[in-house]
Structures are given as structure tokens and as C-alpha cells.
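In the current project phase, we have settled on a layout for protein records. A sample record is reproduced below.
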Amino acid sequence: ITYNTALSACEKGKQWVHALQLLREMVGCRMERDTITYNATVSACREAKQWKHALYLFWEMADILVERNTFTYNATASVCETCEQWVLALQLLHEMAHSRVKKDVITYSAVVSACEKGEQWIHALQLLREMS
């Protein structure tokens, strides 16, 4: 719980490097990492526009069998949107469906916005139709 609290503080303070260091420290000490741990670290990366690190963490969760929930996908899609990575945002949306994780308005908003920033109007319109 203490590490998760520290990771949340890193997120709020936009201290993504410290968040990654704390996560790696947990690995080194063989401490259990859970969905909350990773969500806070992904969110810290999102706040700092570190999309590559956020995606790495997202896939690491799958590798070590940590559950990825709607918040995980939304935080990762948001960093893709912020960094204009529309292809990755769409891939996350498809992965979400494949993993049977519930999409919500935040999910669609991030992916539609990523498509808009990438001038992918057809994809954006398809997603808006899918939402209704």
C-alpha cells in the first residue's frame, strides 16, 4: 500500500522517472505488484507524455499476469491520444475488445481524439457510430 501511495504521488507530481524507479525497486525486492501499482505508474507516464514507457508497462502487465482493467486501458489510450499515436490507440481499443474489458465514454473519447489529431476522420466517425 505504501508503494502504491508513493506511485500515486509521483503521478500527481508528474514524476514519471521516480514512478518507474519505485516500480523497479518493487521488482528488485520481489514485492507484489498489482493493477493499482501499474495503473498509477502508467498514469504518471501519461501525465509526462511518455507513451513508450506507458505501453511497455501495459504489455508488462500481461506478461506477468496482472489484470488490466478499464482504467488501465483508458490511461494508456489517453497517453496515445496526447502523443498523437492514433494507430496505437486503435490497437488498444481492439485489444480491449479481445480481452473482454468494458469500454466506456473515456475510452472512446481518448481514441476518437487520437484519430482526430492524426486526421483519421473515417476512423473517428466509425468510433462515434460504434458508441451510439
User: Anything to note?
Assistant: The mean pLDDT is 94. The two ends are 39 Å apart (CA to CA). DSSP finds eight helices and no strands in the chain. Residues 16-28 form the longest helix (13 residues).
